[in-house]
Design goal:
The chain is α+β, with helices and mostly antiparallel strands and about 300 residues long. It is built from nine helices and 15 strands. Strands 4-3-5-15-6 form a five-stranded mixed beta sheet. A three-stranded antiparallel beta sheet has the order 12-7-13. Strand 9 and strand 10 form a beta hairpin. Helix 1 packs across helix 2 and helix 5 crosses helix 9. The protein is elongated, with a radius of gyration of 24 Å. Belongs to the LysR transcriptional regulatory family. InterPro entries: LysR-type_TF_proteobact-type (IPR058163), LysR_HTH_N (IPR000847), LysR_subst-bd (IPR005119), WH-like_DNA-bd_sf (IPR036388), WH_DNA-bd_sf (IPR036390).
Length: about 300
């Protein structure tokens, strides 16, 4: 048994959920894939997969083994790529996690150009505002707004998100238009919860030497950027947003800017990856592409 072939066959069965589909993607017969997985189970003396006539499910032991296998396969692929002429054509699987609004409004619309440039890269995109354990979750890199507190990560500054305060016309018609940030104390706001702290993001506005913390009565607290925006559009309260999230809705009149003679402290935007993670060709070109893309949307 070739252990590399066996691990590759097992990983592909897990990913496709089928011996037949795995065999097709590996250009092997279904019998060969089945035998490789059976031999791997026999060698490990543990069942990795539960098979029925309709579907294949990974066992608890199989799931744990799969996470280790894909790291090993990725490292082997990176090693071969870096030492061969194929390094000119980055390829392989890349796992990335980005905030949901950034994904839907900026990154995903630009992905056709990325795939045209790098057709051999398979991008697994996690779209969330949750905290991601890059090592434990086997993620190659994340893009996050706010200061990177984990000093063990390598962080690249992509730019600073300019923020503004907004409300829907419906909310303002119902509650009135605040003329000064201090008046927010009597208004409803929508709160955004930090992924790790679960505390609401507290904005600070400045005009000259005057600095004021934005306070209000939370009508709703959410931990997802798209949900946060939707709540503001629905008139649930006042919210503060990056300009890229508010731009189209401001133009359409769905959101009205407030306190335009004041400034909110900008939010830094970073791309981060583990220092122990080899910066493969595929990760390097993705990082360069994200830096280029953010340069078009986010000031540095």
């Amino acid at each position: 048994m070739d252990r590399f072939d066996a691990m590759q066959a097992f990983a592909r069965v897990v990913e496709t959920g089928s011996f037949t589909k795995a065999a097709d993607t590996l250009h092997m017969s279904k019998t060969s894939v089945t035998q490789l997985v059976q031999q791997l189970e026999a060698r490990l003396r543990v069942r990795l997969l539960n098979r029925t006539t309709r579907k294949v499910n990974v066992t608890a032991d199989g799931a744990a083994y799969y996470e280790r296998v894909i790291r090993l396969l990725a490292d082997m692929d990176d090693a071969e790529t870096s030492l061969s002429a194929a390094s000119a054509v980055p390829r392989g699987r890349l796992r990335v996690d980005v905030p949901s609004p950034l994904a839907s409004m900026i990154l995903i619309p630009a992905l056709p150009a990325f795939h045209q440039r790098y057709p051999e890269i398979q991008l697994d995109l996690g779209v969330s505002d949750r905290y991601v354990d890059l090592i434990g979750d086997n993620v190659d890199c994340v893009v996050r707004g706010g200061t990177i507190t984990d000093q063990s990560l390598v962080a690249r500054h992509l730019g600073d998100l300019q923020l503004g305060v907004y409300a829907s016309p419906g909310y303002l018609a119902r509650a009135g238009v605040p003329a000064h940030p201090n008046e927010l104390a009597t208004h409803q706001i929508v709160s955004f919860l930090g992924a790790r702290s679960r505390k609401a993001f507290a904005g600070i506005m400045q005009r000259g030497e005057e600095r004021i913390g934005l306070l209000g009565r939370p009508a709703l607290a959410v931990d997802d950027g798209n949900a946060y925006l939707a709540a503001g559009l629905a008139g649930l309260g006042i919210l503060w947003l990056p300009q890229y999230m508010a731009k189209a809705h401001r133009v359409s009149g769905a959101l009205v800017p407030l306190f335009e003679d004041w400034q909110l402290d900008p939010m830094p935007l970073y791309l981060a990856y583990p220092p122990s993670r080899h910066v493969s060709a595929k990760l390097r070109v993705f990082i360069d592409w994200v830096v280029e893309l953010m340069g078009e949307h986010v000031p540095r």
